[in-house]
Each structure stands twice: as C-alpha cells, then as structure tokens.
Amino acid sequence: MAVRIAITGATGRMGQELLETAANRPDVVVGAATSQVPDTGPVAGYDLDAQSALKSVLTREDIEVLIDFTVPEATADIVEAAIATDTALVIGTTGYNEQGLTRLRNTADDVPVLKAANFARGVQALTALVREAAAALPEYDIELMETHHNGKLDAPSGTAKRLLREVEAAREQSTDGRTHGREGDAPREGDEIGVHAVRAGDVTGIHELLLAGNHEELRLTHRAEDRGVFAEGALDAAVWLAGREAGWYDFSEVLGSGGE
Ligand code: NAD
After folding, report:
1. What are the beta bridge partners of residue 67?
2. Which strand (E) or helix (H) includes residue 79?
3. Is 161 considered catalytic here?
4. Tell me: the pLDDT tens digits for 31-74?
5. Residue 9 near ligand 1, beta carbon < 6 Å
6. Which of the following is catalytic: 55, 115, 149, 152?
7. Which of 51, 178, 231, 258 could be a cystine partner for 17, CB 3.0 to 4.6 Å?
8. 110 Cα: distance to centroid of ligand 1 (angstroms)
9. pTM of this prediction?
10. Segment 82-96, tens digit of pLDDT
11. Whose CA is nearest to atom 37 of ligand 1?
C-alpha cells in the first residue's frame, strides 16, 4: 500500500521537486502539501493548504509521514502538529542551532524522526570515504569547499558540517580547528581545517574535500546534478519510516535495508 505523505514548503525549490517526484512513484501518495505563502495557486498539480492549518490537515488526510524541507523556524509548529497527530517526520531542513536540534531529538520520544542533511546516496558514500581518508592521512592538510545556489540561507551547508564532524572524529580534534575563509595575513596553522562556502547562480550542490601533503593531493568530490536526487532519497526515507516505532533514525539505515 502506498504511504500517505504531506509536504511542507510546497512552493520552495525542494517542495516543488518533492511534489513532482512523488507524482511519479507508486509507493507514495501526496495527501497534502502546505505553504506559508498565502494565495498560491496549485504546485505540480496539487492544491496547497495553509501552513497554519497543518495540524488539522494531517488529521483530515490521514497522513503517515510529513516531509519537511523549509527553515528551522518552522520546526516548532511542525513538531507540535506531528506529535498531536502521531505523524512520522522526515526532516531535510538544515541550519538548526543546538536548541532546534534538541527539540527535534526530543520529538523522537513520541514519533519516528529521520533527519538527514543530505538525502543523496553518493553523499552517504562520501561521508564514509572522508572518514577513512582523514584517518589514513593524518599529516595531510584538509580543506573543505562547498558550492550552492545564491538563495541558500545557511553556511556552511549542513552536509559540510557533517563531513567536518567525520574529519574531526577521525583525527580526534575539536571544532576549534575550523577556519571559515581567509583574508589578509592568514597562513595555515597546524591541524586547522579550512572551510569555504561559495554561493553562485543555481548550483544544486557541490562538496569537495581536499587532502594535501607529501607532494600529492587527494580530492573527494560529490556533485548533485539535480534536486531530484534529494527528493528520491527523502521519499525512500518516508516509505521506510512509515509504521515504525517512535525513535531517532538515520538515512544510512534506509540505504542499508536493501530497499525493504
Ligand atoms: P527554498 O528557499 O527554495 O524553500 C523554502 C520553503 O520554506 C519555501 O516554500 C518557504 O515558503 C518555506 N518557509 C519559509 N519560512 C517558513 C516558515 N516559517 N514556516 C513554513 N514554511 C516556511 O529552499 P530549498 O532550496 O527548498 O531548501 C529548503 C531547506 O532544505 C534548506 O534548509 C536546505 O538547506 C535544505 N535542503 C536539504 C537537502 C537534503 O538533502 N537534506 C537538499 C536540499 C536542500
């Protein structure tokens, strides 16, 4: 049976992509799509409900999983609606502060929650490769570059932060070693990790980790060529999450399941 889903931020880049992608999949049915922007016409053929009516919409349409790619500020309402209606959450939104993350983690006491900074399969593989390379080349300098479209709000990207955590774990160092951009007299120091966020045009998303030393360089690069890759991953996560017990889940569990 197809999983009944709702999508918030339906007018956004990812919201629209999710609606278009979902329309071509037999394993999901879009029961509702909401927008914070008033008086929007249909998006991808779906009539939109007001974001403020989210709770009643989830009940009315018997939604099993809510997929959210909006902004961290929307979390309070989304979490409240999900708990009140016993709806599972797939969260693609990035840029949370500690308080927002804690709120999401606490929500997992009541409903299933799966949050991923990146729903591309290639980025899951990249994450493991980054950890391995950082551990295998402990003396090499590391710099992380990420490029996104000019409308992206948070910097560095959620994926970049995830990759940085992998490097820091592999090298047993703290976040203090991160250097965000350089200007003026700014030579590299010790084990610092340079982090560079580039914003231009409509680039979907590029992440590159550079490891250099010993007269050689290694570059690990992921390039998302279409937002559909994130939408497919998030929909896979929604199908996997439907009917599970309350808890905090990771996208790697979805991929490891062999499409169960
Ligand atoms: P966007 O700016 O195109 O769309 C944002 C949407 O959120 C819009 O529809 C807007 O109306 C809505 N919105 C804004 N404030 C809101 C509020 N207070 N309540 C409810 N809705 C609100 O952005 P986008 O490119 O679609 O990205 C959205 C989020 O998804 C970002 O955090 C981005 O980093 C993240 N993202 C994650 C992945 C992933 O794989 N996890 C991939 C791409 C983007």
Report:
1. 7, 90
2. helix 75-85
3. no
4. 999 999 878 899 999 999 999 999 999 999 999 999 999 999 99
5. yes
6. 152
7. 231
8. 24
9. 0.94
10. 999 999 999 999 999
11. 92
